[in-house]
Amino acid sequence: MRISFESPDQADAIALVAELDAYQDALYPPESRHALDLTAVTEQGLLFVMARDEAGQAVGCGAVVLGAEYGELKRIYVRPQQRGSGLAKKIVRTLEDAAIASACTVLKLESGPYQPQALGLYARCGYERCARFGTYADDPLSVFMQKNLAFS
């Protein structure tokens, strides 16, 4: 598998994000979905990665949006056929390394309670539950986590 920084407005990325959206649409009501349109974020604040298999097919993606106070992981997704291979952890680590290189010291994320595999991944990567942040509202279907990158 190869993970590289690519544009989120290409067909492969759009297809992966559409798969993620369809998956989350089945789990959460619209008011509890906090999807980010990756093409709407200014390029300087967005780092987007694609994971490709040996044939060059897109099999996973992820992004970090860098802000003044913290970065936020968004759109981490691996196709079901590649799950369990450690690919999602590699995507997260690649994004963390890029955030560190951009002088980001804290990464945060919002996920949901109906995604125990994702929550387990984030916990294994060193993320801990935290209070809501940013513009997120209190929602029983939101789980907030963060990681201090200065200690990773």
UniProtKB/TrEMBL annotation:
Residues 3-150 form the N-acetyltransferase domain. CDD domains: NAT_SF. The keyword Cell division does not apply. The keyword Nucleus does not apply. Keywords: Acyltransferase, Transferase. InterPro entries: Acyl_CoA_acyltransferase (IPR016181), Bact_Acetyltransf (IPR050832), GNAT_dom (IPR000182). Gene3D superfamilies: 3.40.630.30. This is GNAT family N-acetyltransferase. The lineage of its organism: Bacteria, Pseudomonadati, Pseudomonadota, Betaproteobacteria, Burkholderiales.
